[in-house]
Amino acid sequence: MYYSHFGLTQPPFKITPNTDFFYAGGERGAILEALIYAITHGEGIVKVTGEVGSGKTMLCRMLQDRLPPQIETIYLANPNVSPEDILHAIAHELQLPVTSQSSRLEVLQALHQHLLTRHEENKRVVLFIEEAQGMPLQTLEEIRLLTNLETRHDKLLQIVMFGQPELDANIGQTHIRQLRERITHSFVLPPLKPSEVHEYLTFRLRAAGYHGPDLFALRVVRRIAAASQGLTRRINLIADKALLAAFADNTHNVSAGHVRAAIRDSEFSNKRRWPTGWIALTATALLAAGVGGGWAVYAPQPSPAQPARAATPAPAPVATAIKSAPLPTQPPAPMVMSVAANPLDERLEATQSWLAAQPPGTISIQLLGGDDPAQLRRDLAQVSRLLEQDRIFVFRTEANGKPSLTMLYGSYPDRAQAQQALVQLPEQLKQHQPYLRSVQGIRDEIRKEKPE
User: Fold this and answer.
1) Taking residues 211-224, what's their average pLDDT?
2) Assuming Cys at both sites, which of 56, 83, 188, 192 could form a disulfide with 230, CB separation 3.0 to 4.6 Å?
3) Among the residues of 172-271, which ranges form H helices?
């Protein structure tokens, strides 16, 4: 509900994993690259452990997205499978021609044949197991036996287990030591350090479309880091509620009080008492989001124990788009695009064809945007002198209820190549704090803004 208030195009702190919001700091990027190497060049079992909410599922999703096309993945989200059913579960994920009445031997033969076929096609098959600490030990042993499926030179199935630290305790038991011996790589996902928490918050906000000054001051970040213990899920929960409190308070500055209220309202906090006025703030935020279907911001209601304060003027809204020139003092004129041929119209038309032709995972670099077509034409002319014009893309969207234009550069098959191109951008463009966007995310944004 606070997204428009802060100039955001999408939720910045959802706990559902979204690979567009993958933060490579805190060793996440290095672990991801190591996992890719281990899978594409290694064999055996790979183990990744981390505390609840440390980002294991996000890492798993990124790994699946970044693996080369010759890797076929199987994903088991529910580890609580009996030893008798684990083969059927894997066969179901691979859509093998077996039924629930098929014997273990029949399923194993079908799986073996599938793996041999993939090997002949120069492909690998990888099994991802999430929440592996909840898998029965007998099932883990059955998983270990699958690593015996091999040719004279290669393993036919690779296994990656994601789990909480209890997984290490389970594997450490003597009677399952054979599984432990098959683990060739082991990674630990550490909590974020306080400095990394600040980077993480800034990164998520920028990825969600925010272009203003830092919303979270360093003293506020220290509170979030201490309360969350560096766990990304907790950081997301606290940050989301703190922004909601600031929105209800009709301010663009997240204060220590907003963060304290957010911490008290979190399930992992030992202090669950709501501060005076917090219920009114939250109710006011809900009212502001719902009344009249608009995004009007209401001043907080005073608590009964306190005298009413005079409402203070609302601060100016945070700018939602970076411009290379100052905003005009007068409101911009309604967007009316000229029908005459010009570079901006050409890039708009070329972008439509480009978006229709690209795979969802294609990555581009968002350079800048704004709600003034004349200004964007000038920006396009400047950028075209620095970059190849046929690799510049422009699409229409909406920000704060106004028509807006966004400029992109480049078309890259993966984030690694896009990140390299981002680093090599001219310094003049880096001042606008460009960031990476996926084609699927751009399509979703355009689709969301189209009238029904």
Assistant:
1) 90
2) 192
3) 177-182, 194-207, 218-228, 232-248, 256-264
Residues 6+ apart with CB under 8 A from 291: none
Assess contact for 241 and 235: CB atoms under 8 A.
Answer: no
3-state secondary structure of 225: helix
H or E segment and range at residue 447: helix 439-449
| DSSP per-residue codes, 34-73 | HHHHHHHH--SEEEEEE-TTSSHHHHHHHHHHHS-TTEEE
CB 10 within 8 A of CB 208: yes
**DSSP line for 303-350:** PTTSPPPPPPPPPPPPPSS--SSPPPSSPPPPP---SS--HHHHHHHH
Domains along the sequence of the chain with CATH: 27-189 (3.40.50.300), 194-293 (no CATH), 343-449 (3.30.70.1070)
**And the tokens for 278?**
């917090």
Least confident of 70-79, 142-151, 394-403: 394-403
* All residues at 6 or more sequence positions from 319 whose CB lies less than 8 Å from its CB, including other chains: 7, 211, 212, 327
* pLDDT given for residue 368 in this prediction: 84
Phi, psi dihedrals of residue 393, rounded to the nearest 5°: -125, 145
Q: If you average pLDDT over residues 184-193, what whole number do you get?
A: 93
The pLDDT, as a whole number, for residue 304 is: 39
Sheet holding 363-370, edge to edge: 392-399, 402-412, 363-370, 435-438
> Nearest-CA neighbor of 285 among 293, 274, 296?
296
φ, ψ for residue 16, nearest 5 deg = -70, 125
What was the pLDDT predicted at 391? 93
In whole angstroms, what is the distance from residue 328 CA to residue 318 CA?
15
pLDDT digits (tens, 9 = 90+) for 35-51: 999 888 877 799 999 99
Where on the phi/psi map is residue 44: left (φ > 0), alpha (ψ -120 to 50), or beta? left
Structure tokens at 435: 């960031």
Write the CB contacts of 442 (distance below 8 Å, at least 6 apart in sequence).
355, 364, 395, 408
